[in-house]
């Protein structure tokens, strides 16, 4: 993924898809014995804007007060914020 993420300053769509999936899997790992700091650094250096978009999705989800939540609307807010970050990322890049 790292080797083929950018080709001629354009982002490889397949590599970006893997990026999001792998990073989401790392953030979602509940085993506290696993440390991913070096891997997070690789992801962040590869594409800091996409890294931040995914990271913020997890932060918002973890900080969400599920006990007081209106499940329909709060979920939409979190999803919409992620969508907006992805659109901004998409608009600032070119793809192959």
Overall description:
By secondary structure, the protein is mainly alpha-helical. It has one domain (6-91). It has helices at 13-28, 37-46, 48-63, 71-91; strands at residues 6-7, 10-11. A two-stranded antiparallel ribbon has the order 1-2. β1 (6-7) and β2 form a beta hairpin. α1 (13-28) packs parallel to α3, α2 crosses α3 and α3 (48-63) runs antiparallel to α4. The model has no long low-confidence stretch (mean pLDDT 94).
State the major sheet. Answer: 2 strands, antiparallel
State the strand order across the main sheet: 1-2
Kindly state the number of beta strands: 2
Low-confidence stretches: none
Helix count equals: 4
Order of helices and strands: EEHHHH
Overall pLDDT score: 94
Radius of gyration: 15 Å
What is the strand content?
under 5%
**Overall spatial form:** flat
Task: Bin the helical content.
Answer: 55-70%
What distance lies between the first and last C-alpha atoms, to the nearest angstrom?
14 Å
The structural domain count equals 1
């Amino acid at each position: 993924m790292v080797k083929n993420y950018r080709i001629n300053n354009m982002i490889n769509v397949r590599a970006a898809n893997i990026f999001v999936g792998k990073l989401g899997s790392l953030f979602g790992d509940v085993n506290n014995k696993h440390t991913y700091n070096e891997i997070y650094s690789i992801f962040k250096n590869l594409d800091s804007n996409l890294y931040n978009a995914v990271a913020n999705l997890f932060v918002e989800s973890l900080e969400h007060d599920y006990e007081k939540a209106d499940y329909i609307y709060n979920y939409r807010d979190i999803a919409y914020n992620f969508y907006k970050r992805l659109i901004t990322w998409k608009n600032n890049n070119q793809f192959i």
